[in-house]
Amino acid sequence: MKDISERQLEIIEAASKLLTNLGVSGLTIKNLAKKMNFSESAIYRHFKSKEDIIVAMLEYIASSLDKRYQNNDAINLSPDDKLILNFETQFSFFNEKPHFVAAVFTEGFMEENNRINETILKIMRVKMSHLLPIFKEGQDKKVFTNELSTEELIHIVMGTVRLQMFKWRVSKFEFDIVESGNKIIQSLLLLIKSK
Question: I want to staple 130 with a disulfide (CB 3.0 to 4.6 A). Which of 69, 80, 96, 106 is the partner?
Answer without folding.
Answer: 69
